[in-house]
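Journal club side-thread
Mid-discussion, someone asked how the predicted structure for our own chain would compare to the paper's figures. Pasting it here so we can look after the session.
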Amino acid sequence: MPDHVPDGRSWPLASIVTPSYNQASFLEETIRSVLLQGYPNLEYVVIDGGSSDQSVEILRRYEPWLEYWVSEPDRGQAHAINKGFAYATGQIFAWLNSDDVYEPGALQRIAVHFARNPACQLVYGDGWYIDLDGQKTDRCVWIEPFDRQRYLTFNSILQPAAFWRRSLWERTGPLDARYHYAMDWEWLIRATESTEPQYLPVELARWRIGPEIKTRSGGRARRAEVAEVARRYGGIRQPTYVVYQLDRLAWTLTDRFGGRFLGQGLQRLSAPVRWVVKDKLWKGRYLS
């Protein structure tokens, strides 16, 4: 990398936080994707939740290149991220989960963008899905330029590809640790109340998708949390919340009567609304 940002200033300090728990299968790939950015002013913090696999051995191996790491019990992913940012001192903030990776040159692109756009507080880019072996599978085609009203229904920001200024984190406050699945969306909703994020149409990150990740394995608990965030910020008429209530009624009837007839009937009645939300607004993000 050049010694300076194109305008001649020094590269701003970038603080990247990685929360992790029993992710030894992917943790090293994530760490290397950060360190091999070659970014000259990096503060990399890893907060491990007291893993029982080989995570600590990996962290010790990379300790010379980490600003700080710890392995101790915590209260979940959001709490771990908040701990990391409480330690961080950089001008640029981001977190990268321990099964996701950055594209080469991502940090340089972000630093240059912030330098050229001093009013910008939050920027996000494009990304790819990757499988458990780290191979790219599909583009995250649902990422799009920001629209505040639409964002209350559809999370069009890929979290690993989002970066913001420290001042925005301090103004918005930390992640709400009550949330286990939707804490990134909830924080971004709060953050974008005070700033218009900028969309950078370049590939910045890769998002790992597999049967065990929370987005796929959360089931009804995840659906309930997403619906709560939608209701909290969009009201009871918010489409995601409406569809969730219809599905919840179908689940209740199916569970209570053991039968597929009532549940399937209600599913069919609610199909038009579900089609609008899942296929048109959420574009596949609202998972069954």
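Post-session note: Confidence is low (pLDDT under 50) at residues 283-288.
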